[in-house]
Amino acid sequence: MTPAPIPDDEAERLQALEELLLLDTPPDERYDRVVRFAAEQLDMPVALVSLVDGRRQWFKSRLGLEASETSRDISFCGHAIMSPELFVVEDASRDPRFADNPLVTGDLHLRFYAGAPISTPGGHRIGTLCVIDSVPRQLGPVELAVLDALRELVNEALAGGGDEGLPA
Questions:
Q1: In which band, very low, low, confident or very high, does the pLDDT at 164 lie, cut at 50, 70 and 90?
Q2: Could you give the C-alpha distances from 122 to 91, 125, 155, in angstroms and in order?
Q3: Which residues form the GAF domain (predicted)?
Q4: How many CA atoms lie within 13 A of 118 on its CB side?
Q5: Please, which residues bridge with residue 56 across strands?
Q6: pLDDT digit string (tens) for 85-133?
Q7: Phi and psi, residue 27, nearest 5°
Q8: What's the rounded Cα separation, in Å, for the pair 58 and 127?
């Protein structure tokens, strides 16, 4: 297993995340709607808005997963925040970075992961909108575009935008 790397802007990224005052807060319907819509439109059993702090990934919104957080070192989202591009793992059991990861070998049986990095208004990648399945999958261009568009809705919510345009 390859532990999630640490971004070069880690100190600034963590400060920006902390300034949002989102960690360990109650559910928020703005994020919950996006997560439900992502799961429905992409036919995924799990969808999350995940925020990556110094030691964990904490789920601001979650559907299909009981856990409210996991350790950062085993997180897929920790890998996804390294680049602004969508991060897709079609079959984690065949990917040397993740094959022996406890999220893959344990009860979750994670096989497919697609994470769209979310950013603060200042551009620091602080987490993801992600979808997960227990079977290997591929997303087509339309599905990738849907995930990318939903990421933009989360970014707008992070920037303090209203509910306009968020899925019902």
A1: very low
A2: 33, 9, 11
A3: 26-168
A4: 30
A5: 71
A6: 999 999 999 999 999 999 999 999 999 999 999 999 999 999 999 999 9
A7: -55, 155
A8: 9
**Would you call 80 helix, strand, or coil by DSSP?**
helix
Q: Which two tokens stand for residue 12?
A: 């600034």
67: tokens are: 């856990």
Q: Which domains does the chain have, with CATH numbers?
A: 10-158 (3.30.450.40)
- Token pair listed for 124: 């620091």
The pLDDT confidence band at residue 26, using thresholds 50, 70 and 90, is: very high
C-alpha 117/C-alpha 127 separation (Å) is 6
Q: How many CB atoms lie within 10 A of CB 64?
A: 14
Alpha carbon of 153 to those of 3, 91, 126, 146: distances in Å?
29, 27, 15, 11
